Structure formats: C-alpha cells, structure tokens
Amino acid sequence: MDTYTPEQVLALSDEEIIRDIERNDDFAAYLRELQLEIYGDDTLGEVKTALTGEAINRASVDCNWRKEWTEDDRKQHREELYPLAFKGDEAIDIRVRTLARVRCAIKRIADSVSDLAHRSDERTKLQNLLKRTKDGDLTVRYADSDRDGGLHLAGEDSREVMFGWGLNFSPDLQLKLASDYEIMPYDPIMPDKGAEIIGILAQECQLSPVAWKVLLDRDNDSTYRAIWNTKDTRLEVMDIIMRSDKFALLYRARTEKSARADLLKRASEFHDANFKTWFRHRPIR
Q: Distances in Å between the alpha carbon of 89 and those of 45, 94, 96?
C-alpha cells in the first residue's frame, strides 16, 4: 500500500487530486484516514469547526460566471471564503489545509446543487468522489429538496446515501446538525430535515456522545425517535439516556411491556407522540 503525506497532496493540481481519488485506492484511503485523524485531534480546537464550515459552505470556489473578474479577484474571493484552503497562513495545521484543499478541488466538479438534477455526468462523478472519500461533511454541502419535500444528498435520496455510502461525519458537523436543523435546505413542509441525518446517525451508532446530549436537550419528536430506533449500546451514550427518568422509560419501552403501559400514561410528557403506532411496528415477541 502506498503512503502519502500532506505535502505530497498539496503539491498536486486540482485535476490531479480528482484523478487520484478516482483511480488510486491507496490515495482515497489516505484521505479517509486523514479525515478521521483530524476529527480525533482535540488539539485543533476551533480550527475543526472552521473546517466544517468550509465544507458545508455553498459558495462557489471560483465564481466562473463572473466574467469581469480577474484571477486576482478570484484569488481574493477564495481566500475570503475558504481561508483554510487558500490563505497563506503557515500557522494552519498542514493536515487541515490539505483536507480543505481536497474539498475545494471536489467542489469544482459541481458548483451548484441545482446542476446535479440536470447534468447526470457531473452528478455521477461527484457521487463517486464522495463515496471514495467518505466525506460526510462535504456531502451535506450538496443537500437539496425535491418537489415533495424529500431530502437528497448529491442528487441521491438521503436514506440511500446515509445507509449505503458509509460516510464519516465530523463531531463538529454532528453537533451543528443536532443544535440547528436549519443548516439543511429549508422546506415549509419538512423544516427539520437535519433531524433525518441525526436520526440515522443515532440509529447506526455513529452519533457522538456530545451530539447525543444536545439532541436530548431538544426534547422533541426527533429526540424520541432517536432513542426508540438507536442500536447504540456504548456506555457513555447509555449513561446520557438513562440519567433522565423520562428517556430511560422510553428506552425500556422498546423491550418491556410494563414500561409501555407506563409510557402511554405519560404520553403528554412526550408531546403526545403516537406511541401506539410505534408499538405496533415493534411488537414485543
């Protein structure tokens, strides 16, 4: 297996980065490992939050439609909106700069979410890049709604993406999604689309304990569904859920008949969630 360094990646052009992601399994694997290394490094502090912000930023990297702009104009634009990737600040951790630059290279493939609906070649290429890098933060940048209010990520149904692509989501993005669903495309029919991603992460044991805490503090239907559907058994997550009598009862009701009876009596505490329907869909054998 070939190994890489941030310096080697930064020396590549955008075209070379894209080519290597598409054709070189070792290179794609290195980028996946780089993400996880950065996400797990507590010394990076607020830089990681800024990195997430650049990933989900929908602004164009180059604004190519602005024909009156010079290259200096474009350079200034890039540095203002994507400073981790393009601003010449030597204090920025080189791993962070590398991931930020790779993300901007990928963004140049598909500048607009709306383009994905009409340009199948761009959509297929972008989806392949996201699948190979497993970059969940960048995938959220390509979130959009269809006419029926359904959520799509990079032109694909969000549930297909979340369950099928094996994406990595940074703790910072998880926290942001748990705190503010509205970072997703707003739709008056389904305003809490971010809750869908959080719910699947909670179900699949991928939600961080910190994001779990924020989700429980919201104390709404998304909170209850996450507890009801989760497969998570990590001790730190169980401790967060079980320290609340209310949420502990909901968790026990998944498997205990007596807890279900008590839950129905206390349904008003859960905004009158339709627990009878939940029970029918998950009978106790």
A: 17, 10, 12
How far from 184 is each of 141, 177, 222, CA to CA, in Å? 9, 8, 15
In tens, the pLDDT along 67-106 reads 999 999 999 999 999 999 999 777 899 999 999 999 999 9
C-alpha span between 97 and 86 (Å, rounded): 8
- Are the beta carbons of 55 and 133 closer than 8 angstroms? no
120 has pLDDT over 60: yes
**pLDDT confidence bin for 188, thresholds 50/70/90:** very low
Residues 112, 110: Cα–Cα separation, whole Å = 6
Residue among 110, 187, 101 nearest 147 (CA): 187
DSSP for 119-170, please give it: -HHHHHHHHHHHHHHTBHHHHHHTEEE-TTS-EEETTEEHHHHHHHS--B--
Check: CB of residue 38 under 8 Å from CB of residue 99.
yes
CA distances from 162 to 119, 140, 176, 196, 239 (A): 22, 11, 17, 10, 26
Amino acid at 284: I
- 239, two tokens: 């401790």
